[in-house]
Amino acid sequence: IDMYVEAVIDLNELLMTHAFQPADKKEQHFATIVDKATNRYFPVYEKVLKDHGQDFLVGNRFSRADVQLLETLLMAEECKPDILAKFPLLQSFKARISNIPTIKKFLQPGSQRKPPLQEKDVPKLMKIFH
């Protein structure tokens, strides 16, 4: 499980820090996100799901790895809505995990899941954390 969770940390960090990039670096940063997601990470997870043919990432049991991957997929789609276009098993995985009752409740508007960071909020956050 830890192997799968650790593997998406790099992509997760890229997604989370995108809004904080200086204007002259944003385009390259976005290109890096898309490249790593579609050429490095998503193909591996697509293959894992295909090879073992189960509903979940590890065996046939819901785990932290599923939650971590789902969050990364959602963040990636918030960044680029069609990013999963070439990954049908990841699309199915996202739909399946998103419909688990507790996850579905968490993803509804007004839940504890935070919306994507807005540009207008960046200066405020920079004052707090820098």
UniProtKB/TrEMBL annotation:
One Pfam short name: GST_C_3
GO biological process, one term: xenobiotic metabolic process
E.C. number(s) listed in UniProt: 2.5.1.18
Alphabetically ordered keywords of this record: Transferase
Gene Ontology molecular functions: glutathione transferase activity
Domain called GST C-terminal: residue spans: 1-117
Similarity comment: Belongs to the GST superfamily. Alpha family.
Classification via PANTHER family: GLUTATHIONE S-TRANSFERASE, GLUTATHIONE S-TRANSFERASE A1
Name the UniProt record assigns to this protein: glutathione transferase
Lineage: Eukaryota, Metazoa, Chordata, Craniata, Vertebrata
